[in-house]
Amino acid sequence: MGVLLPNDLKLLLTQNGFEPNRKTTYEITAEFDAEETGGISFIEFMKAMDTKPYRNETKKEIAAIFKKYDRDNKSYLTIDDFKEINQHVKENLDEETLLLMLEKADSNKDGKISF
């Protein structure tokens, strides 16, 4: 299964307007690497997003991250978007797990995650 390694995390953060140094990148990875694999799995990433580690982020910064995954500019993410992310990170989660993750993050229960 694929994981987001510290160098991947640094690239992701840099692409979203942040400039993390090496120490910060490794600290973030260690904080969310519950499985101690040296990287952040897709499940760990989703758990991290569920715990709202972005509480110090501005709405503009959160919108930029959301937009990266909302490639069609729909202002929401669907199960199809989750499947595409799952394939991209090579996590190979089954559809049932992806649906559970979507349901947990779907605050208004419309089958989408909106921003």
Category from helices, strands and their pairing: mainly alpha
CATH topology: Recoverin, domain 1
Which consecutive residue ranges, at least 5 long each, have pLDDT under 50?
none
Give the overall silhouette.
Answer: globular
Strand order of the largest sheet: 1-2
Order of helices and strands: EHHEHHEHHE
Report the count of strand segments.
4
Name the helicity range. Answer: 40-55%
Largest sheet: 2 strands, antiparallel
**Number of separate helices:** 6
Number of domains: 1
Q: What is the distance, rounded to the nearest whole angstrom, between the alpha carbons of the first and last residues?
A: 29 Å
Tell me which oligomeric state these chains represent: single chain
Mean pLDDT over all positions: 82
Percentage beta strand = 5-15%
CATH architecture label name: Orthogonal Bundle
CATH class: Mainly Alpha
Radius of gyration: 14 Å
Keyword list:
115 residues, two-stranded antiparallel ribbon, Recoverin, domain 1, 6 helices, mainly alpha
